[in-house]
Amino acid sequence: MSDKINKISGWEFFQNLGKTFTLPVALLAAMGIFLGIGSAFTGGKTIEMFPFLGNSFLQLLFNFMIKISLVAFNFLPLMFAVAIPLGLARENKEIAAFSGLLGYISMQLGTNFYLSSKGIMAVTDTKMIMGIQSIDTGALGALICGILVFLIHEKFQYVELPDAFSFFGGTRFVAIATVVLMSIVGLAVPLIWPYFAAVINQVGAIIQKSGNFGPFLFGDGERLLLPFGLHHILVATMRFTEAGGKIITESGETITGALNIFYHQFSKGPEFVSPEYTRFLSQGKMPTFIFGLTGAALAMYKSAFAENKTKVKGLLISAVVAAAVGGITEPIEFIFLFIAPALYVFHSIMTGLGFMVMGILKLIIGNTDGNIIDFLIFGVLQGTWTKWYLVLPVGMLWFTVYYVVFKWYIEKYNILTPGRDNSELAREAVSSGDIGGYTAKIMLEALGGKDNIVTLDNCITRLRLVVKDANLVDTDAVKAAGAVNVVKLNDTNVQVIIGTKVQILKKQLQKLI
Predict the structure, then answer these.
(1) Domain ranges of the chain
(2) 402 has which bridge partners?
(3) What is the pTM of this model?
(4) Phi, psi at residue 34, to the nearest 5°?
(5) Which of 102, 459, 486, 498 is catalytic?
(6) Residue 145 known to be catalytic
(7) Looking at domain 435-512, what is its CATH homologous superfamily?
(8) For 305-350, how does the pLDDT look when each residue is reduced to its tens digit (9 = 90+)?
């Protein structure tokens, strides 16, 4: 059993890998909002409509917001290189993050040395990266770097050296090994990177050739991968690699990924923004996230038994707010995912259709979350050139379809959505009124007690646990303690769907443990 726990399984690795994307992407989304507000209020037409915005102090403030937003766009690969080993490491996370920084720099230095020593720097497509002239491998190269640093960290964090060199042992050796090994990797980058780039280019070509069906495949696939926690990998591939597109700027700089290209074009002005890249971004989520899931929640409320409607209202409202305002859909999706998989398949298809329809209509609303904030900042505030007004009729159609389908299916097949199950545990689960109505002590007992917990982590909405025995986790008791649902991936990997308050619960559990 100890060997099985100590070794990170494939499930845990890919789950945690997807989770690590959330930290830099969350910053990227926030900085995107800064960029959107700054751009909206510095435009000539906006100032003409609202002259007070032309105030010199306000203009200085808005331009400052645009400038600081560049921290996320210019240093995104570095953030991935640091966040990935940080998120994947079970122990000594701070050493893993520090080594991620060292590894990324060392890889660039190794590449620079190879190009210089071979005398091919002038004939190679290079870029200044942190002051080092190197090959720009983008987010994919940073992802590979982060994974390699994590493996180095796992291999050497407990290494013991002879007494004369013991000072350099343990976690200190991780940094040393990282510099040496990642420099060697950097030497290999000019030789192997063209093959990686060719594969990504091929994936991008396939997606582009799919035409309007490409966004559908992306949206549908992203929802289908979500229950397994692997959707972040697909999303990151489209946002940050050549699979999502590639452009070469007038200065000769290569920009890859739908989100990176959008931010670059958006910062230059509306006339430069192309709907070819926004069709994989926020606009595709809006029909489902803002409208469709709201219709599903209303259907679940209407289908609840009369005596339970008051109790279930808080749960559904908080889930709708999380989706429509926060762009976080798991709290409502996991209400029906396991009890009505057919509804989740319907939901996935409708999400894909949302991406496809918005692409066909050539909307231009970028960023990441697909929520009301993105709709206002990157749609309404930018002007009619974004075609934001088309979101409303499409959204109302989605709301109606979701409501009709969910209500019909729930009542026809007697699906036990919140408020339709009068068992004791179900009453306890909805009596709290919202997803945050948990008790940490009861939750820990339901998870098998502190002795059953090997590692405890979280993403935006889920507790991610490695346990000694998943059979000791009482699913009904965990749900009664306030969770939306429990996913047992295998004998040792468990996820508990909480909602946006998961960070608070994790800290309370950590104190108890």
Answers:
(1) 75-190, 213-275, 277-412, 435-512
(2) none
(3) 0.69
(4) -55, -45
(5) 459
(6) no
(7) Glucose permease domain IIB (3.30.1360.60)
(8) 887 788 788 778 878 887 888 787 877 887 787 778 899 999 999 9
